Amino acid sequence: MTSLKSENFEVLYEHEKKKREKAEAQLEEANQNLIMSTELIKEAVRKYEAIYRKLLQLKDPDYKEENLNEEIELINNFINSLQIKNTTIDESLEYCYNKLEKVSRSFTVVINQLNPKIKDEICVFYLVLRALDTIEDDPKLNKDTKVKLLKNFHLNIGNENYSHEDIGDEPDYVELMQNYSHVARIFNKLDEKYQRIIEEITKKMADGMCEFIEMKGIQSLKDYDQYCHYVAGLVGIGLTQIFVASDLEDRKIMEKLDLANSMGLFLQKTNITRDYAEDVEKKRFFWPNELCSKFTGDYGEFLRNPNNQAIDLLNSMVNNALSHFTQCISYLKCLKDKTIFKFCAIPQVMALSTLQLVFNNEKVFYENVKISRTESIEIVSQCFNFEQFKVLVENFVHKWKNSLDSKCELFQKTDSLLDEILLAL
Predict the structure, then answer these.
(1) Fewest beta carbons within 10 Å, which of 13, 97, 221, 366?
(2) Residue 105 falls in the annotated catalytic set
(3) Which of 2-11, 145-154, 251-260, 322-331 has the lowest mean pLDDT?
(4) 227 in catalytic set
(5) Which residue in the list 130, 194, 230, 274 is annotated as catalytic?
(6) CA-CA distance, 239 to 263, in Å (whole number)?
């Protein structure tokens, strides 16, 4: 019997060994093909670099040599990131990046170009908070269950057995919660200094979410700022802590966390303003009552039925969000790492463009208004340092100012905020 068991073990061992060798051979072949592809891309970059220089000089005589060199460096960094080795293959890490693309295409672009020292850390950070948001946003959960899940979530960030079968109001969010173990596995591989940051921010965010569930809505403008701090300002603070922990940014920026908070508030308030129709349809109400009550007793009544008061309320919401942009500029001026700058600046420019599109636009009360894919691509391709960021913002601001054809108080307030942005640049 012992001999038979030994033979069976040998057969099984040889079978598994062959499977492993075959998989390794396939992996090595794929790796070689990828290396070959990146070499072809590099050759293309080298081949067209001279032509590109001439074209840029014809198009813009003020374009500096260093601008092009920065662009080429970013391209080369991206190409180098494609060259993988066998040891870097990780099913859970692959899942995280695939899922990131499903739940947020815009953040996928800026995360993928990040310095490798913090790329995985920020991918995991985003997915952890996306899972937390999924719990908060699920209308199927009663208040007590939701509060309990939120309060305990930070204890389960690294729990590889943690999952939920039916939480989420979108299929991709449900699937993330069902397969959260992948996120937990990669979290457990991060350096402890990053784990602590993610856990601390997640706990604070969850506590803040619970506070507003208990309050049953957002009443004052102060409450609105506080809510946006919990769900987005804390993200800006946590990201800043990660930047500093990696030594990619100077520790002095930790003295300006109010600016990091404003980065989050600007993005969150832009999304809340833009997403009116979607949120109201799902019975989610984030517009502050203190502001809404100046125009209506129930701002939900404007859904597919906007009037002049609805447009004035919308423009007031836009102005409230726009008031944070000067601090965003101050934050971006502090950044040194090129990939971190792009990661932070691109979403801000997209949000500014979104606010310009949303302003005075009654379509907001019917549908989710978004900037075009073409405009998004242009922003991503052009926003690679502060000078280019400045050009993009100036263009949006001047275009916006030229559209302000009314002398009403709200338009004058918008014009004043736009002037402050130009001065801050």
Answers:
(1) 13
(2) no
(3) 2-11
(4) yes
(5) 274
(6) 11
Q: Which residue is catalytic, options 126, 173, 194, 343?
A: 343
300 band by pLDDT with thresholds 50, 70 and 90: very high
Element (H, E) at 171: helix 171-178
Q: What is the pTM of this model?
A: 0.80
For position 107, what pLDDT does the model report? 84
* Alpha-carbon gap, residue 376 to 394, rounded angstroms: 17
Distances (CA, A) of 400 to 60, 186, 395, 396, 408: 24, 44, 9, 6, 15
Q: Of 63, 97, 284, 366, which is the active-site residue?
A: 284
Q: Is 284 a residue of the active site? A: yes
User: Which residue has 């809340």 as its token pair?
Assistant: 272
Using CB atoms within 10 A of its CB, is residue 283 exposed (0-12), middle (13-18) or buried (19+)? exposed
Look at residues 374, 378, 271, 249 and name the one whose alpha carbon lies nearest to residue 321.
271
Active site residue 78: no
Chain-centroid distance of CA 240 in Å reads 14
Backbone dihedral region of 237: left (phi > 0), alpha (psi from -120 to 50 degrees) or beta?
A: alpha
H or E, element range at 403 = none
Secondary-structure percent of the chain, ordered helix, strand, coil, rounded to 5: 80, 0, 20
**Which is the catalytic residue, given 125, 153, 173, 227?**
227
Task: List Cβ neighbours of 90 (8 Å cut-off, separation of 6 or more).
Answer: 186
